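User: Hey, my collaborator sent me this sequence without any context and asked if I could get a structure. I don't really work with proteins. Can you help?
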Amino acid sequence: MRSKQVAQIAFATGMISLGVVVLVFGDFAQVWRSAPSWLPGRQALAYASAVLMVVCGAGLLWKRTEALSSRVLLYYWALIVLLTQLPVVIKHPLIEVAWQGIAHLTVLLTAAWMLVTEDRRAVRVAQLLFGLALIPIGLAHFVYLELTVPLVPGWLPYHTFWAYFTGAAQLAAAAGVLFGVYARLAAALDAALMGAFTFLV
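Assistant: No problem. I've predicted the 3D structure and written it out in structure-token form, which is a compact way to encode the shape of the chain:
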């Protein structure tokens, strides 16, 4: 199976899982937490977004619907980043957590972008955006060390070391992607690291 197919299946599974979290637990899974509380129909929009993620995630698993599903998800994540995360960064440009928030969702945006296009220039732009997004994610491990260390599983020794190590790994992956130094390997290892976070944290 080609690496793009594996990535597409992983992305589809992630979208379905994220949507299910919203639908089953009523936890908006970070997606709508930055939306203003005064937004009309905020909760209804959150649940509608969950349905969209589940339907489009499932659509990525079928050949006939994968193109439309990936395009809808691209537009969806672009809107989420622009409407819920960018205003936070503009309002608090010197606070690292604001950049961390937009970075996490930009990773999802670039994943959808990579599924939509095969144009080399567009792919490279998505790669650069992905690499830039990894920087605040990695820096957060250092800036918020006191919050990162408790997330390390109790059975692992040297919690502070792992907090620093994973932050440095994110920054190394960012450098690899941005400068084209083993970029594919850097992205794959970073994906494995994020996957490990999901299961361990």
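In plain terms: The chain has a mean pLDDT of 90. You can pass these tokens on to your collaborator as they are.
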